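Hi V.,

Quick status before I head out on leave. The structure for the redesign project is tokenized and pasted below; the design run finished overnight.
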């Protein structure tokens, strides 16, 4: 039975009513009985991943090669010799192709004046087919490290995430992160909610308050992906991790922006963020 989002099984009647084992044989049988419970938990984790992973996207931040002035050559596209500036994650917000991610994942596109920055989004449609689209940035807020992309798709072609709430989280409850660390697509990591109400810096220096702390591994490329509860509902946007000085290795202290903050500061489709004209 799942209690407050945690993975927890009700003890079987055999375990709760049987007296302590009096022999090594009985002890062995008792151990085998107890070993079945984690399998039930694993089934739940697998189910959460299978239901949620089609809603997660892989984002490539690209810079096109500039064609020399006066040249008659066709500009080079991102599918040829474009430079990969960085990678990140995001998740499908709705059936219209809106994608939520971190601002720092697409900051170069948001501030581009050269016309050479592009964002390529790799997705899976509702039938499980992989494809890619160019992502257009339609809104961003550096103060909360959030941004919204739009990809052109047919209605109902995508599978949006299911939004949860971060207002009733409890320290100790299980959570999961899905993203693309170091370019490894659809990577699942597991952990617990380690703390609540944390404060982390935003890209513009303003503190982001109320962040969720978790020990579910978050590495480079995870940024913008969802933090998920045991019901498969999004409870946060994975954003930052503390690393050991000089190593770049995660310390296991990771942070996500609460989904309630995202909903409040990102009302879609009528986005109230800085919109690009």
């Amino acid at each position: 039975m799942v209690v407050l989002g945690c993975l927890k099984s009700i003890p079987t009647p055999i375990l709760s009513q049987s007296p302590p084992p009096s022999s090594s044989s009985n002890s062995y049988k008792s151990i085998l009985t107890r070993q079945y419970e984690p399998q039930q938990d694993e089934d739940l984790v697998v189910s959460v991943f299978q239901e949620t992973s089609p809603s997660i996207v892989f984002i490539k931040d690209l810079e096109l090669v500039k064609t020399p002035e006066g040249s008659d050559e066709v500009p080079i596209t991102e599918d040829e010799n474009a430079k990969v500036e960085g990678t990140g994650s995001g998740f499908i917000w709705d059936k219209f192709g809106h994608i939520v991610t971190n601002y720092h994942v697409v900051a170069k596109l948001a501030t581009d004046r050269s016309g050479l920055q592009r964002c390529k989004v790799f997705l899976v449609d509702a039938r499980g087919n992989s494809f890619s689209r160019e992502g257009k940035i339609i809104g961003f807020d550096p103060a909360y490290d959030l941004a919204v992309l739009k990809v052109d798709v047919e209605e109902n072609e995508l599978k949006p995430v299911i939004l949860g709430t971060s207002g009733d989280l409890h320290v100790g409850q299980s959570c999961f992160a899905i993203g693309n660390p170091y370019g490894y697509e659809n990577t699942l990591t597991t952990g617990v909610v380690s703390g609540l109400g944390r404060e982390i810096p935003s890209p513009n220096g303003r503190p982001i308050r109320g962040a969720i702390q978790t020990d579910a591994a978050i590495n480079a490329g995870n940024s913008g992906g969802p933090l998920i509860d045991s019901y498969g509902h999004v409870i946060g946007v994975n954003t930052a991790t503390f690393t050991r000085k000089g190593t770049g290795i995660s310390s296991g202290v990771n942070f996500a922006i609460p989904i309630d903050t995202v909903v409040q500061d990102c009302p879609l489709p009528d986005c109230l963020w800085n919109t690009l004209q």
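Above is the designed sequence. Confidence is low (pLDDT under 50) at residues 1-19.

G. will cover questions while I'm gone.

Best,
W.
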